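Risk register update: the risk of archive-format incompatibility is retired. Evidence:
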Amino acid sequence: MFKFQSTAGLKTTTLVVLVILGCSFRSLAQNLGQTTRILFLFDASQSMYARWESDTKFEVAKKMLSEMVDSLQGVENLELALRVYGHTKRYPPQDCDDTRLEVPFGKQNGPRIKSKLNDIKPSGTTPIARALEECGNDFPAAKGRHIIILITDGIEECNGDPCAVSALLQRRNVVLKPFVIGLGLGKDFIRSFDCVGNYFDATDETQFRTAFNIVITQALNNTTMQVNLIDFNGKPSESNVGMTFYDQHTGEIRYNFIHTMTARGVPDTLPVDPLGRYRLTVHTLPPVSRDSITLVPGKHNVIAVDAPQGDLQLKVEGSNEYRKLKAIVRKRGEKTTLNVQDFDETIRYIVGDYDLEILTTPRTYIDNVSIDQSKTTTVQIPTPGMVTFICNAPGVGEILLEEKNILRRVHRMGIISTKESLLLQPGSYRLVFRPKNSQSSIYTIEKTFRVAPGTGISVNIN
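Archived output:
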């Protein structure tokens, strides 16, 4: 599997696969209805000569960018440009103004970008902040969706502040939040670029190619959304749960995401189609939903859903050998099964009250179990005991639980062999048994026994 460190949500797996297989992106662009301008900010600093799998980082990146602009040829309402840094001056000395717009914005200018890439030779330093600042002047004044895609193998080397420059460009509505693809930078650099834009860490050529396709897919989608899962205190702190977006009108499944917090502790940004209305189901226990979600195209939409959660832990006293138990969890007062939970397992539930039916023999019922925000409620039951029944001949038997002078059947033994073992919860029991070959009820045998937690006893049937 590909492992991306990203603050940008992924499209569905199907879409990603289609892009990787050579989708021309035309279907996405047709929905834009306005001009999208993508400025590739390309690192040509000296470090790009480093070896990276099949070739140098520069040659690999140049090849993939060339392939990408080829795939974008013919896409309507799309203009491309190329700015490069670290390629006009040699290092040392350090020149922190070493950046140039090599190909201005234009339609169908993929060949120009490819030709210019072939002329570039890495030589200088890494002035990312300065290059981003100049990017703000590269876009025309005409309205459109303006996007920067930064491809780099290093961090700022000129004491600039790329985060501040990116924030300023976004605040002034010059560009949307940029994309950053880091070539073999690793997890230590995520925070350095997370504030600059939606960061993808490509640790090898395959991941770089896939990340590039995902970035372009998102760049050609003009709407983003953030889902805030609100806790009991009104904060968007809940996460790590599946979300399904349905078409409100047709019921079609549109997107599936796992809700994620970014490295900065805020809900992730999701690229979605702005057309139509959505119904959102968050797959908590029980699920929570929101209907009739309408998105504003070209804007960052924030959707809030109440999803306060706490944990339920089920435990059995004593030895591990008695812990292969399960419990049916239901909402308080309801008959529908919400979940079947294993013992020694902790699962999150929406804040509220629940009833438990534990699949012991006999069944254990625990009602009105409260789940509180960000707290763990622990339910612990006694260890069952092991009862071994021994008889001279097979027969028919029933085990009855005795409580307050009332007998209740908890297990039917059927035609048993001469030896049978059974786990029973602590309590007082009676065994009523008739040998198979006995043809009269007067041959019924009754045995009284008591089960203590974690003990083993034998019941002889004579």
